[in-house]
Amino acid sequence: MALALRLSKLNRGYALLESRDGADTFVEVVARNVEAMDDLRDNVGAMRSEIKRLRYELGDAVRHVSVVRYDAFNDLAGRLSFSAAMLDDGANGLVLTSIHARSETRLYIKGVRAGSSDNQLSPEERQAVDVALGQKS
User: Where exactly are the structural domains of the chain?
Assistant: First the structure.
């Protein structure tokens, strides 16, 4: 009796591994899943390489931008003058400043290298650079 019960359990376990009505066996399903996991692992590795490459390339892209608006002269209101900083991840780029007066508007561009400029930055230009780089100003 005990042997018959044990044989019955083994037969039920074996039936799970067998194919029925043309369906795949348990072993075939597991093998397919293992192959799919290997493919996914390869895809993840390729994506990591691509992300690393893109991060490297984006390091030179303008990603840090800030605009500071202000009144350049006491007799004018409306904050029509501005300084805009446009920098990459290395804090390199430029500051574009527009000074608005009653009869004219002047534009100035100053290069920025590692967060500093060979030309002296005005307080508004410095603020634009600091804000673009995420520093409080």
Answer: 24-58, 64-132
